[in-house]
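Hey,
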Amino acid sequence: MDANDDAAFMQIALQLGRRGAGNTWPNPNVGCVIVANSPFGPLIAGRGWTARGGRPHAETRALEKAGEAARGATLYVTLEPCSHFGQTPPCSSAIIKAGVKRVVCALEDPDKRVAGRGIAQLRGAGIEVELGVGARTARRDLGGHLSRVTRHMPHVRLKLAISKNRKIAGRGGEQIRITGKESLALVHAMRARHDAIMVGAGTVRADDPELTCRLPGLEKDQPVRVIVDTALSLKSCSKLCQSAKAVPVWVLTGEGFSQVRAARLQKCGVEILPCPLTKEGRVNLQSGLEKLAEKGITSLFVEGGARLAASLLQAGLVDEADFFFSEVEIDEDGIDALCSMELESVINSPEFTRLSTRSVGADMLHSYIRN
């Protein structure tokens, strides 16, 4: 197989890996394809992606499907095969045992339990290993895992629905439908592809949201719902609390939180995560993100409100941003998109690059990534 074949089969592995996005944490969402030689040319003998909850791993599933066809075949995988015993045996050992001849891997795994050892084991067994095919795309697809193990924080993606005159809500935070049904459906799909959703306490008070994915077929792909609530003001009668035993709700709050309020929320199934406060008396967001990473969260989808979005941007904690711009106008006494922070200071910042602009129904979606 030549370089073009390698690139094409790696693209298939990457597409498979995306099927696990949002439901494999704390493990990465890896994709794998096993390609055997046949009289008619290269033939896919097995394919797999990391299962819900992180196990079995993609390589194990692909090898099981390939069976004896894996012997002498080429295995394409988006992340270095694990080399350590955890709850399952190492994938590197399974690959060697299956008789795979060649492994094409997009990225080395920076996890200190692996960190090149998987590749070294494969090469030590006489397997040819090529590293770096599809690496650029794999870094984006596996950004949550890479961020968690190297920065000890999840990959943060911010989403805002913004009116024509740069507002995100009405006076006093009044909820106003800004974007159309197509954008709403896309946002629900985005929720399903992340481990957790985060909003501020103000958004909860104003909207009483569910923060669930309600698209047909994706009902099982529910992210953890995270609330930044310094004063622990979440009401036990809220939709979040009423559904906390079915879909997890975690609250980031100050370390000196009220035990009485905490007990009321915990009775509903809410988990309290105490964090240090900033000198302004708010939850330290970096510490909060580190708490989420400790609990296994790799990717975080932030849906507002304005103060939380601005605070994350000012602290340099946003990795990607999706701004849905609408033709709807909101009265001038409405809530600015980023409070006192100018939206254009983000859009025109050298810290961010615009990845794409596309129409979503009547709205325009502008997507940015931190350089």
